[in-house]
Specification:
The protein is an alpha/beta fold. Helix content is 35%, strand content 22%.
Amino acid sequence: MARTLIAGSGSEIPPNKVTNAMLARIMDTTDAWIRERSGVETRYYVDPGTAASDLGAAAATRALEMAGVSTGELDLIVVATMTPDHYFPGSGGILEAKLGVRGVPCFDIRQQCVGFLYGLQLVDAHIRSGLARTVLLVGAEIHAGFMPYTRANWDYLYGKSDVAPTPEEYAWNSRFRHLTVLFGDAGAAVVCRASDAAGRGIVDSILRTDGTDYDKLYVPGVGFRHRPYVDPDQYRRGEHIPVMDGRYVFKSATTTMIEVANEILIRNDLTIGDVKLVLMHQANRRINEFVQKSLAIPDEKMWHNIERYGNTTAATIPLLWDECARAGRIAPGDLVLLVAFGAGMNWGATLVRA
């Protein structure tokens, strides 16, 4: 039976770098406050009009180039995003068109921060079953659209205007600071191919979902439980912006990621000592440090980039993979452990032999 090999990777970071000090110009926060609570130092945002499919297509092009694969060889495209270009259709077909591809099946998945791991399991199932041999998997997010800032606030943030936020705007922006300071925009992709190479490919995957407490991290408005699904009152109440119970998320993320990482290692008769590299979803540096300490993972086996990019949701793990691959931190045969937790609540772990 064929194994699923990650043959190439690519990423795309948008042009607008935003530091913590810049955010302090439009809300009640400080660089120290953000660093202490999250580890984030900078994040990047797209220009207005740029979509998840744009970042995803750019990342995909680089991944295809690294893999030495042409678009004509693709059998399937999977896009993980919670920030699609439009409510419908999905971003997968739009991304496909931007790559100049026609007729290849593609679909979106909505598993938020664990989207890439869910996508990787789907890709692995397609390849192992013989339904596909070459698959493009993309994680791309545009979180700028969630931000509560006015257009004038954005201009002031970027230094394009001297018009500071009004006291009302400043208070509004500050209301959501616990969440908005965390997120950035990015796209990342991998090309997966069927391979008969012994000892390489996806080894195992464990995915979990528990929707009992979904409202601890969600967007309360802009959904079809409302009629109409979006209206001005929702915006005035800020219901289009995510809300999060930070203490709940910290406890759940640490508990479930530790459990699922241990579970997948035990199931495969492995220990952390057998793992070359651990790539965790980049939601919060404190969460990852807690998990690292609990699992006794040496510093040299960890790779972080949350300080540079913030939380890019479905893009975090493929972005980490691409950075490590291009930095020479992942070599053929290396065992890599991927671990994530996100809204839903969803969590999971995947073992990959590079």
